[in-house]
Amino acid sequence: MNSKVLMVLRFLLAIMLLVFGANKFLHFLPQPEMSADAGAFFGGLMSTKTLTLVAVVEIVTGLALIFNKYAALMSIILMSISVNALLFHLSLDTANIGPAIALLVLNIVMLYNYKDSYKDLLKG
């Protein structure tokens, strides 16, 4: 893929992560309507401070992608959040699945972008 396209996608993912990560602390975006089950699950994540950890990982990953430092490592760590966000929306909140799909697709693109960084990890 063209390096300029990858750079644009990297910045797009970084901005998305910074906005959604900061929103978990500052609450500047309106909360979408959720089902009772999704709200209960989301409330459990908030009460156990799991969402605080998710927000920190999103913000740190966004900064890593912007500065292109440790971005390969943070893209791997972000994959767990991407998959869990998609599974949450698939099972409990399908109406708001768009950003979760975008997050997963952009994360996969970043993993592919940094594939050379993972060669030593994947040696058999």
TrEMBL record:
Pfam families: DoxX (PF07681). It is a multi-pass membrane protein. The chain crosses the membrane at residues 45-66, 73-91, 97-114. Keywords: Membrane, Transmembrane, Transmembrane helix. GO terms for cellular component: membrane. Its main location: membrane. It is found in: Membrane. The keyword Membrane applies. This is DoxX family protein. The lineage of its organism: unclassified sequences, metagenomes, ecological metagenomes.
